[in-house]
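Running this now, will post back.
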Amino acid sequence: MRGAAGVSGGAGGAAGVENTRKDPEQWKTGDEPMTGAQASYLQTLSQEAGVDFDASLTKAEASKRIDELQAKTGRGQKPRE
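Update: finished.
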């Protein structure tokens, strides 16, 4: 599910420039319900991390939770060169 990682703002963009990423709290649509892609990816990450999945998160909250669970599970991490 490659697209879901981009939802949380992974290394997106042509150059993969991380410092151009907006904080989810500043998103104009951040208070809307999370997207289907976010929900699906969060379910997978939650299961792998052994934590409960919260279906009530907003887009912004889901993005932050994805980042947290990626760090916990090692998913979405770039290999070190």
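The CA atoms of residues 22 and 59 lie 13 Å apart. More later if anyone needs it.
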